[in-house]
Design brief:
Length: about 450
Amino acid sequence: MNSMTRGIKNAFRNPLRTFAVVIILAIGIGLSLSMLVAQQAIGDRITQLSANLGSSITVNPAGARGFEGGGETLTSASIAKIKAVDHVSSVSSSLSLRLRNSSDTASAQGPGGSTQTNTGTTSLNSAIDAGTLGRRNSGTDTETGTVQRAFSLPVTAVGVSAGVDESGNALTLTSGRNITEADSGANVAVVGSGLATKNSLNVGSTFTAYDKTFTVIGIFNASNTFTNGQMYIPLLTAQTLSAQTDQYSSIIAKVDSLENVDATVASLKSVLGATADVTSSQQNAQTAIDSLTSVRNVSLIGFFASLIAAGVIIFLIMLVVVRERRREIGVLKAIGAGNGSILRQFMVEALVLIVLGSAVGVGVAYTASGPIAQSLVSSNTSNTSTSQTNTTGRRGFGGAGLGNVQNSQDLVGKVATSIGLPVLLEGLGAALLIAIIGSAIPAWMTAKVRPAEVMRGE
């Protein structure tokens, strides 16, 4: 019987111990793989934030935010000026509309009960309850004891270019598909999960807006209540139905690198003049990126720490196993087995245990990597505030809710993890290396002992 065969058989000599060792190793290897996956996922998220947020510049009509303020609308001429500025890599535009429920006359009224103009109708009900803030902003006097009139919030519909939201970022779909170039001018919509739940909408469902029938082609899930309560429609459709041809409520300019953001902001202010407000999200993005960088470093340290722990476990286990088999080693050496043969036997035994532990550990990592990554991100960003704080379900003077708590976790969003083949091979390769080292040391120490000394000790 050669050394490899003996090593494989010895791995299962004591089934109970083998089971316990495999479980312990599976936890250690699974944790190390989870940390490695988390480290990669957080690194990917940092790259996304740098590209999507840190290098984004928002252009709004001067004096306007959302549905509040004044000023003149942005046009195609504004877009042309923005595209001509150095370091602007791409431009996306949007038009936000406010839709009231066709059966709710109160929602068409603004502060003080004034009638809102430029407001369409829809068969949908708002997913956001008016709450104290919504009723206050509707003009209801909540301090004098006046009975509050019935009021429901309008539904926000945003006309966008193909495949992106009003910030120029891709939507995270839970079902269906996104808006494409082929949908330009069509009556289709991608609705938020909150709005879909409130109105029992699924992909293929229909509703009315501006007295037209719309078909739901997709459902998305964002990181906040306000966005999940709105919907996206093709930009041309929004402009046509609202009679706002060649008008935009917001333009997003993407800059080719973070280093050029400040210079590009200055250039845009110069070419657009007093007609537009130009702002950058670089500071908020940098806060989130700094938090994620810290988390990525922690996860990398956790990977090495858990890997070393697995190595210590296999070292201690093999040390006990080798000492238990000193007599067996002495007999093998007495009948001619060399140090190399004995070393290979115990290394094969350790590798069998590591392979079994790794197989179970991959399942552990698959289950635990997502929650571990999100927990690390949440714990590190929960106390890091951004300057863009909003009440749940609220933006500007619209929306509802009670409270004023939001942090950089909302900017970071959900960190998606996946165990790809490169990460799997990298993690398992490191585990096997640790196993080889951990088993070789005690085996080599014992293999060097003379047979006579072993037999004399027995």
